[in-house]
């Protein structure tokens, strides 16, 4: 396998004990990580002791008003000349010491320019969320390109910056992540890759622990931002809407809870799914909403600081 220079890039905000665990796990990887580069939001919540966990951890700080899902990751990309950029979130914990190795292996195929990892449920993950992890991140690896659009639609573009690796030269050639994004910067870039003739790999043997037991309100807000991101990029999402994929997940989840003899979870599924759909619907039509209501609906209030 060709030897690549690999840097890990992590945006953080109020990192907790999981972040220290993440750094320790990265220090034990079988494939050499050159640098860990962090852009931290709000220096008040940063623990300088984290910088001693391993050598070559570089940290810069921004204000909450400066953070942007796309712009901050662009800032991270500008700080590296690595061959491969591995993006992670602060709460994604490598499942073993071969995470980076398994991500990098995929780039042996020249057409692959992005690779994302499998997300496993953490301890305490709810039954519904555990099934969602298994549905979105199955045990079999996969590669998708332009030829898969007719079969998989919007899922062809899927890539998750919870843990994803990108070839830097292609990233720069295509313009990188969008400068301003309320959410979904990874899939927007993934669409550009696919439309330009490249492929995205899903590496099921590159594994991180990552899951959330979001409330209905949180699911509404998260999906509102998802809807906004799709509304802002009709060149991608108008042709490949995500509603069908969402309904497919609901049906399969309902079937699963019946199979495991927990039919009472159907009520929870209905509430969560309703919150997701309503959030997504309002996000898709956010231009018709007053500013004060948008600020109630979004997870990312600072995104709207310059107005709608």
TrEMBL record:
One Pfam annotation reads Glycos_transf_2
The entry's keywords: Transferase
Q: Which GO terms describe its biological process?
A: single-species biofilm formation
The record's listing under InterPro entries reads:
Glyco_trans_2-like, Glycosyltransf_2, Nucleotide-diphossugar_trans
Which GO terms label this protein's molecular function in UniProt? transferase activity
| Domain of life per record | Bacteria
Give start and end of each Glycosyltransferase 2-like domain: 8-174
PANTHER family with a match to the protein in the record: GLYCOSYLTRANSFERASE (PTHR43685), O ANTIGEN BIOSYNTHESIS RHAMNOSYLTRANSFERASE RFBN (PTHR43685:SF13)
What protein am I looking at? Answer: Glycosyltransferase family 2 protein
Record organism: Blautia liquoris
